[in-house]
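Hi P.,

Sorry for the delay on this. The queue was packed all week, but I finally got your sequence through. Input first:
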Amino acid sequence: MRGISTLARPLVAALRSGVRAPFLAGMACLALAFAVLGGSLVLRPAPLRAEAEGAGSLRAHMGVASCAGSTCHGRSVASGTPVRQDELLRWQEESSPTGAHSRAWRVVGEPRGQAIARRLGLDSAGTVRECAGCHASQGAARLADGVDCEACHGASGAGAGGGWLAAHYTVGTSHARNVAQGMTDLTSPRVRAGVCLDCHLSGDGQGQFIAHRIMAAGHPRISFELDLFSTLQQHHDEDADYVTRKGHKTNSMQMWAIGQAEAVKRGLALYSQPAKANDGVFPEFTFYDCHSCHRRIYDGDEANVSAVPNPGRPIHAGMPPYNDENIILLLAAARVVAPGEAATFDARSKAFHRAMGVGRSETVAAAQALRQAADALSARFAATAFNRDQAFTVIDTIASDAISERFTDYEGSVQSVMALDTLLNGMVNAGMVSAGGASGLRLQINQAYAAVRDPNGFQPIAFRRAFGSAVRSIRSLR
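Then the structure:
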């Protein structure tokens, strides 16, 4: 279901100054989720309607302009206290992933977006129906604003319990009060994952399901890792004042682990819905591993079978496997933090793969059991601080024979490199690893990224060698 379109561009321009930048700066850019987010607006369809947030209530979507004052978030320099107050400018950055959300609707009207719509047979109204669910903000009056402030932070106008816009800057207010008045609590990894996954994997909302036919029409495949992508979109500083207001700094290792669990849950929940699991007489191929089908075909004696046996998938050769990239990484984290739950999760993941060769009802039942196990792990991770030893052990576990043998396909291998980089940066941010020591490992990590740069030329064995070298270099810091 997911992959990476290009891994060649560094993230120097994407990241602001701060502790993360030196280490992510050399990392190859995970750009496919942002590749469709930039350009010029051509289509000008009607605005979306306001979205109901609760039973019988409507909270007004106030729009970007309501945040743009120089005393709010619209300054040209970061001179404000207690927040930077140039957040709007950073959201609008034209040349980096930091401004990708602001460009989200523009790309729908660019040549690639128009070509996708044309191949799908969509007119202007159809494009709004199928694309605005992720390329714009629900309830916004201006589609041109793309994914705006309230798409992530929650509609801010008056509703049944008031609205947080008018109250969030008042003296004596608190984050808890803002949340009570409708602000989305993005400090909670589980809540944040739910918001992001709606579009960066798929959701139940109108125009939020990224079907195989959309990718076949030219849409980039979907790749997502919660902590990394949060960093790319971060418009604030996590300073002492942030900790005072929010209660804690972001724990990148926890964010990563919960992101894996919530992605597993979301994928299985969508798969369990008959309307999404099938497309006519065909299965919905978006749920399956892309490269299990997209391989070279040989008819002669020179056939070179590129498929590699996967011990985590007890299925017959020739069966397209479920895309289990997040399942693999979640198992690695579980084996360190919750060994007992890990055994259950591993058994259920294999049972799920096996059930796909039996029948639909058996597979849905297995999916629900696996989803319950993932939910238990998500809750366990939310209560775990992820200390230095655990972080290093998770990295070792990802590279262990028991886990690395499952990196037989491109998507899972990409996810493992993102995990490596995220966990290392998380340890740097938490003061568990020195900045100088981590920066000295950039070459080995970049070599692991190079091994997954080209999805069409991916070689599992070569990847494992490069990945193992990167892990050994990180292990030297322990």
